[in-house]
Structure formats: C-alpha cells, structure tokens
Amino acid sequence: MTTAYIAIGSNLSDPVNQARKAIDALNTIPQSRLISASKLYTSTPMGPKDQPDYINAVAKMETNLTPLELLNFTQKIESEQGRVRKEERWGPRTLDLDILTFGDETITSERLTIPHYGMKEREFVLYPLAEVEPDFIFPDGTELSELLEKVDRNGLRIWQTTAKPVKEQE
C-alpha cells in the first residue's frame, strides 16, 4: 500500500461538520484505509479576505489505488458535500480535498500535481501534517521540522473540539 496525505479545508455550510464528514468519507474509499487525522484547525483565508475563516485538517491514508483513482474519489466526496468548482481561485468552498503527497511520487499533469505545489508554505497544511506525521520528509528530502521553523502561523489555531476518532476499516 502507498501512504498518501490529504489536506481538508472548508469555510462554507458548517465547515466543522464538512471537515468531519470528509474524514469519515475518506475512510470509505475502496482499497484504502484511513490511518489518522489531525485535530481541526481554524485559519484565515489565503485568497480573498472577504470570506469566512477556514477549518483545516490533514488525513493520513494507505491505498492500493493509483493517484488519479484517489483523486477521482476525493473529487467525488467534494461533489457529494456540495462543492461547486468555480474559476475563482482560493475562494470560499464547502470542501476542498487536496492530495498532498502520494508515497515518494512526483506527478505533474493537467489534473494532478504531487507533491501539492503550495504545501511547503502553507501553515494550515504543515501544522496539521506535523500532528499526523511529526517526522515527515518530503520526496525532495526536505524535513517538515525545517519548514515549521520558518513558516508563520498567521493566526492558525486548533479548533476547540477535535475531529471524531478514526474508525479502523477492516
């Protein structure tokens, strides 16, 4: 099985519930198993500031799917939770699921870029990732701990309640 890390973000339609439902839905993806999920974090929007704050988390999974198959399932979960894809980049959304890494693969295609192109600069990805994989090393050899020393928290904080416990899928 390949280890994949998925970023979870929402700032519309009850974002805390959207993130929790997404974590539960990740655990239903065929040929895959959810290993752990971080606590929920709240962060200010990266793009336009005239939108609500985000709820973010990171999930660690093992899968026998290909990267594109996993992408198809994450996009299906987004759609089922009301995601409407718009041209506006970094705008408000019910749910955003991004595949951050997929094993040590590097992929650049029209539909998928792995490792995720902005993950090394985004506090709302790095801190939750450190929670689920403190000794994480990026495919290029960069250590997560090095990036955490450099990235500003930008008001990132743990949400007052944690995500529901992960149920092991048999």
Protein architecture, described:
It is a single chain. It is globular and about 40 Å long. It has 4 helices and 8 strands, in the order E-H-E-E-E-H-E-E-E-H-H-E. Helix 3 crosses helix 4. The strands form 2 sheets. Strands 1, 2, 3, 4, 5 and 8 form a 6-stranded antiparallel β-sheet that branches. It has helices spanning 15-26, 67-80, 123-132, 144-150, and strands at residues 2-10, 32-37, 41-43, 54-63, 96-102, 107-108, 113-114, 157-158. It has 170 residues and is α+β, with helices and mostly antiparallel strands.
State the major sheet: 6 strands, antiparallel
Per DSSP, the total helix count is 4
Distance between the termini: 15 Å
Strand residues, percent: 15-25%
**Backbone CA Rg:** 15 Å
